[in-house]
Amino acid sequence: MFDQDHIAEAIAWRHDLHRHPELGFEEHRTSEMIAGLLTAWGWRVHRGLAGTGVVAQMGQGAPVIGLRADIDALPIVEATGAAHASTIPGKMHACGHDGHTAMLLLAARQIAAKGVENGTITLIFQPAEESEGGARVMVEQGLFTQFPVDKVFGIHNWPGLAPGRFVARDDKMMAAFSVFDIEILGKGGHGAMPEQSDGVIAAAGRTAAALQEIPARALSPLEPGVVSVTQIHSGSAYNVCPDRAVVSGTCRWFGAEAGHIIEDRVRRLASAEAAAQGCTADIDYQRRYPATINTAPEAALARQVATDMGLDTSMAGPSMASEDFAFMLNEVPGAYLWLGAAREGENPGLHSAKFDFNDAVLPVGAEFWVRLARRATQR
After folding, report:
1. Tally of CA atoms within 13 A in the half-sphere of 258 that contains its CB
2. Where does Mn(2+) bind (predicted)?
C-alpha cells in the first residue's frame, strides 16, 4: 500500500520524535512537526485544544470518523542504547506514542494523496495521555462540539502480543483508575523510647498491607479490582521515630460499584489503621480515568478491517492498565484497539526504560488506519 520511501520517511519521523521526547502538555516541538506535515499535505489543521493538541480534517459532510494518536512521552531515563535514543535527560518515549504518531502521519499522507471520496476524516493528535488526562481536556475544551464525529478510534501498540495480532473487544478494554496519597500524622520521638511517640511507621506498614487486600475481601471474585501501594515515604534518621509518613498508590476497576467500594474501603482502612496507632490519616483520593469500554458495532468494524488485512483478530482479555481515550468513548461510539508489537528475544514492556517501539508494525498500523477510514466513511 505504501511506497517504501514513504515508510522509511515515517520511521525517520518516529526516530526524530524519539530523540526529542516531550512530557504532557509540553509537546510544542512535536505539535509543530505534526501540524507542518499535515498542512503541507492539504489537511485543514486546527491547533490549540489542550494547548498542544492538533486536529486535522479532510473531506466534507457525513459520515465523520475520528482517528486518534497520543503524542506525549514519560519521565523515564532511557536505557535502550538505540542510535535514536532520547537526547533529553530524564524523558523518553517508553510507551510508543512516537510510533502511534508516525503511524497516523503515514496514513494521513496516503489519505491525502488518494483524496477522501465520502464523508470527513478527522485526525486527533492528543497530548498528555500519561496520567494527565489530555483527552479529558480536549473534550472539555470542545473537541466534539467543534469537530463532531460519528465514531472515534484509537490504537496502542501492545508488546505482549505477537506482530500480526489485533485485538478489539466488544466491551471492556482498559480499567478505570485512581491515585491516592495517605498522610499519616502522629507524635515523633527518640528511637530508643518508642513508647513516647506514636506508631507512624507501624500505621504506614499496616495500611499498606491492608489496602492491597481490599479486592480480595470487598469485591466478588468475578469482579476485577486492583489496589497497589507503590510508595511509602517516611523518616530521616536511624534513631528518630518520625511524625509523618505518606503511603501512595493506585486503584483499578471496571464496574462503577466496584469503584465506589474500593474508594470507601481505602478511606476507612487508612483511618482505622492510623487510629489504632494513635495517629490520624489525611487521605487525598483522586479518580483519574474512567474505564475504556468499546461499543460493539465499532469494535466489529475494526476487526473486519483487520481480518481483511490478514491479521489475527482472536480475542484477548481486557487489561487492568488505563487509558484516557475513555473520555472520548464516553462522548461518542468507538473502539480502542491493540496492535501486536512484540520483538524477538528481549521484549521490554510498556513504560520500561528499555522499551522502543517496534518499527516493523508501523506500516501495518498505518494501513489499518487507511482501510478503516475508507470503510467507515462509506455511505
Report:
1. 24
2. 95, 97, 130, 156, 351
DSSP SS3 for 29: helix
Backbone φ and ψ for 89, nearest 5 degrees, come out as -55, 130
Q: Both 135 and 187 in a single domain?
A: no
How many domains does the chain divide into?
Answer: 2
| Known binding-site residue numbers | 95, 97, 130, 156, 351
Give the chain's length. Answer: 379
pLDDT in tens, 43-72: 999 999 999 999 999 999 999 999 999 999
The parent domain of residue 342 ranges over 4-174+291-377
- The string over 167-194, giving b where at least 16 C-beta atoms fall within 10 Å of a residue's C-beta and e elsewhere, is bbbbebbbbbbbebebbbbbebbeeeee
Mark the binding-site residues for Mn(2+), compressed into ranges.
95, 97, 130, 156, 351
**Model pLDDT for residues 119-128, shown as the tens digit of each residue:** 999 999 999 9
Contact of 336 with 158, CB cutoff 8 Å: no
Residue type, 312: D
CA–CA distance, 320 with 337 (Å, rounded to integer):
15
List the helix and strand counts (H, then E) for the chain.
11, 15
- Examine the domain organization and report whether 42 and 170 are in the same domain: yes
CATH number of the domain encompassing residue 229: 3.30.70.360
If asked whether residues 8 and 138 sit together in one domain, one would say yes
Helix residue spans in 141-255 (DSSP H) = 143-146, 200-211, 214-218
Q: What is the pLDDT of residue 131?
A: 78
- Other Cβ atoms within 10 Å of 318 Cβ, number: 18
